[in-house]
Amino acid sequence: MRNLLVAALVVALATPAIALAHAFPDNSSPHVGATVATAPKEVKVWFDGEIEPVFSTLIVKSAAGKQISLGKGEVDAKNHALLETPLPADVSAGRYTVYWSVIAHDGHHTEGHFAFTVK
Q1: CA dihedral of residues 62, 63, 65, 68 (deg, nearest 10)
Q2: How far apart are alpha carbons 46 and 55 in whole angstroms?
Q3: Per-10-residue mean pLDDT, the chain, length 119
Q4: Which of 54, 51, 58, 46 is nearest to 22 (CA)?
Q5: C-alpha distances in angstroms, 26 versus 22, 29, 35, 81?
Q6: Can you say how many angstroms the Cα of residue 15 is from the centroid of all Cα atoms in its chain?
Q7: pTM for the model
Q8: pLDDT value at residue 49
Q9: Rounded distance, CA 72 to CA 60, Å?
Q10: Residue 116: how many CA atoms within 13 Å on its side-chain side?
Q11: How wide is the angle at C-alpha 104 spanned by C-alphas 41 and 8, nearest 5°?
Q12: Separation CA 26–CA 3 (nearest Å)
């Protein structure tokens, strides 16, 4: 019985660590689904954990599927939970999709996308 309790305690303590292992978006600028009056100069995504700079990307595409972001995105040097990419000055009105792909410090991969609209 004692071994069963110890095993249950070990599983209970290990489960939150596993759940926290992946990095997921916590916030973004522009926000998910936002409609903004003027085009942003950059897109930023904050994650709930630190991510690996070498394997993390952030790309913005137009409705036609053309990449408009300048480069593949970079992890902020001072904040390894922030992934950002600059946009050109001439972003026109329309719907844009932000594609992100990150590797957390423990090696787990997550990816996703969201849209925003420029009026």
Answers
A1: 0
A2: 16
A3: 44 43 93 98 97 96 98 97 97 98 94 98
A4: 51
A5: 12, 11, 19, 9
A6: 23
A7: 0.82
A8: 95
A9: 9
A10: 22
A11: 140
A12: 39
